[in-house]
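Q: What does the predicted 3D structure of Carboxypeptidase Q look like?
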Amino acid sequence: MMEVDVLDKTIKQAVEQVNADAAWPLVEAFSTMPRWRPEDVEASAHDIARRLTALGVPVELLEASLYLSIPYEASVVAGGEAFAAKPPAYSITCPDGLTGTLHHVPGSLSANVSSFYEKNRDENAAAAERIRGKIVLTDGFASPNKVLEFQEKGAIGVIAVNPGIDRHWGICSSIWGTPDLDDLPRKPTIPVAVVNNVDGQKLIALAQAGGTATIHTRLEEGWFKSLVPVVNVPGNIEPEKFVLLAGHYDSWDVGVGDNATGDAAMLEIAHVLWNNRSTLRRSVRIAWWPGHSTGRYAGSAWFADEFALDLDENCVAQVNCDSPGCRWADVYENVACMSEATELCQSVIGEVADLPFGGERPLRAGDYSFNNIGLSSFFMLSSTMTVEKRKEMNYYTVGGCGGNIAWHTENDLMDIADRDILIRDIKVYLAAIMAVANAPVLPFDWRATSAEFDATIARYRKAAGEHAPMLDAVTASLADLTSALDTFYAGINDGSIDEAQANATIQNLARILVPLNYTRGRRFSHDPALPVPPLPALAVASELANHGPESLGFALTQLHRGANHTAAALRQATRLVKQAHN
């Protein structure tokens, strides 16, 4: 494997400079500033810029035009009782109310963050006809895949029954960022509301008795001016190349753990990096995103669109900062990390925090707006509480806040943040970013990705059964790539491949292999906010057993085309690696 020295003298000195003197006051200020209405979001962008300027860090406020959905209020009236509710962003506004018969589709909660964005409900074929023309009650959160499927099956409205006493804000659209013409058919066309579990159980009982309900929602949807604060810390040897560090500054309510702590972390990292800019080999670009909450990552998607060609040409890695520094966050488990960056992340967390690293495949979530371009990426959510602590607190799974169920509620207040944990997490982020920015050879090991692909293809071959030979070309192409990568990294270690050639190859491999593993759509587009399986062009192999004679041929055709696509991409990657020896 590659040697990753994360704590060289330069990085140690920078890490030792980290404190919360500037970061903690930002957390405290944001704890009194709601940040989802446009005027409040703009005020908080100016606040970030003011604080950076006071620290002597130059900042630019870019202006984006984003299509957003601003939720205000909702209620559900049923059985003579009015239930408090919240409307997810992108639910249609329905202030006069929509009435319909209730129908309950049972579901289960995710056991961990890894499965949080899956459908997570019963697959009952007979339920499809019963859904049509009804208001569907569904257990859990108003996730976009649930709402989209219920809408497609004819539901006229959806009520999500949250698992606890809180009602969680969220967004029910699967469209990633501002829609384009191809995205528009997937816009929600029905009202959606979320209720807490106590009220939800009353509604479920009413549904079982054949009762009706009326959903009221009020939202505002349209184009909004949004500010994107950006800091560029220039490198000295390869200034055109850069690491992108980013996280969202808009939040639900005041959102202390999600994501005021992340905003503060990036403020401190910008401060330390600016003071140590003379030591940087490559540049670091730091951005604060709007439109995360009300536009399904609209700010990061806008940046990916606006600077696509520069990102394609020069960005060596993308690092996401969301929910660091939360109380009881004693472990680094379920930390998003693409496989080529696993050793880097493990080394950083081990050496800086003296904790083990539990990485996982990045979800299709959390401002990962750069997969279609093909950027190596790591981190999304930061440290979290242990499974044992969650059990002790009787917490269900949420998508941030270090596992605290205040996530996306008005309870995400100062008591969710922990100053000491925030300092530790800032140090981890800073060390990882500097390790990438300063490494003579980029610290990404594509042999780990090759091994991941090998395991994925083995699973698909097993699932395909008698049709496994359709993947023979993919298996052979991957073997060639693996061999070429072994020779490539040996050449780096013995000096027969120079740094410039090695870095160009490592970066360009990302442009091929990241889209291959994480996207279905074309480059420079944005896949929906729906789960993406590994090597998605081959994923139909795992579904062949579900197809009868009438559809098996179509599924095999899809697999054939996916295998061609995958094998061709692997061969392209192999040619690229072999060229490094010329």
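A (community wiki): The structure tokens above were generated from the sequence. The chain has three domains: 9-68+224-438, 75-221, 446-579. The chain has 16 helices and 13 strands.
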